[in-house]
Design goal:
- This protein has 258 residues and is mainly β.
- It has one domain.
- Helices cover 12% and strands 36% of the residues.
- The strands form three sheets. Strands 1-11-12-4-3 form a five-stranded antiparallel beta sheet.
- Strand 11 and strand 12 form a beta hairpin.
Length: 258
């Protein structure tokens, strides 16, 4: 009898101990956040990828060329050149290998400029203005350099860029912005040439010939006051308006105006 009584007592003690442990664990667990209006239960919410959840600033490109649509997302974002001055002795250079042609006809044989976007990013830790070049087909190679004047690739004549203190030239290699027959531009949207931001004053095309595509970016800062402007380059692969785009974003340090 004593043995039976001891086994029953031990069983009750084990049950009580288990209940106590569960109560402690429940008390330590953080309460679940109540659902907000219009939200779906967690089990019904679709998974969000890390790239898609990046904020526009983290993604490096917030200069939309059209209102966002369902399915728009950032696939990857990479800073290829961090803040520094791409002067004559230290130009930026990035290579990308693309097969030629990148797709069979009637698709363009090279990465093709689809759109240009511009935007101010005043709230970032280091504020900047940005001009983004959106390509289809892949990332082209490119060089970025400060130049004394912008020169037309075909004629060799200077291209006026009034109201700018200095000029940053970006040259894309293995790229184009014209249709296969050369009669029309492939750029579907672009800001006006005179942008008039504080750091980004304007931009102008300088050439599109034999796979070399170039633009000048006017920096609105007098050379005699602050002779050098820091530049950063960010590459963003994204889906936008149903297009798979490869974005090269040229970012100009706007700290001097803040």
């Amino acid at each position: 009898m004593n043995a039976i009584r001891n086994r029953r007592t031990g069983s009750r003690t084990a049950v009580v101990g288990t209940l106590t442990l569960l109560m402690v664990l429940t008390a330590c667990a953080p309460p679940a956040a109540p659902p907000t209006a219009g939200s779906q239960p967690t089990s019904q919410s679709p998974p969000v990828s890390a790239a898609a959840s990046l904020s526009p600033s983290a993604a490096g490109d917030a200069d939309e060329t059209a209102p966002p649509q369902p399915g728009d997302k950032v696939i990857s974002s990479t800073v290829t050149h961090n803040w520094s001055v791409p002067g004559p002795a230290t130009p930026f250079h990035t290579d990308h290998e693309n097969p030629v042609p990148i797709a069979p006809p009637p698709a363009p044989p090279l990465p093709t400029l689809h759109a240009i976007g511009a935007g101010e990013h005043a709230s970032d830790t280091l504020p900047y203005d940005q001009l983004s070049f959106r390509f289809t087909g892949g990332f082209p190679s490119y060089d970025v350099q400060t130049v004394p004047e912008l020169v037309n690739d075909g004629s060799g004549l200077p291209i006026p860029m009034p109201g700018t203190g200095s000029i940053v030239e970006v040259t894309f290699r293995g790229a184009q912005s014209h249709t296969a027959d050369g009669t029309a531009s492939t750029v579907t949207s672009a800001p006006a040439p005179a942008i008039r931001y504080q750091a980004l004053a304007s931009y102008a095309p300088a050439g599109d010939f034999e796979g070399v595509l170039s633009y000048g970016i006017g920096v609105g800062r007098p050379m005699s006051t602050v002779p050098e402007t820091k530049v950063r380059v960010t590459e963003v692969e994204r889906i936008e308006q149903g297009q798979h785009l490869y974005v090269v974003a040229i970012q100009l340090d706007a700290t001097a105006w803040r």
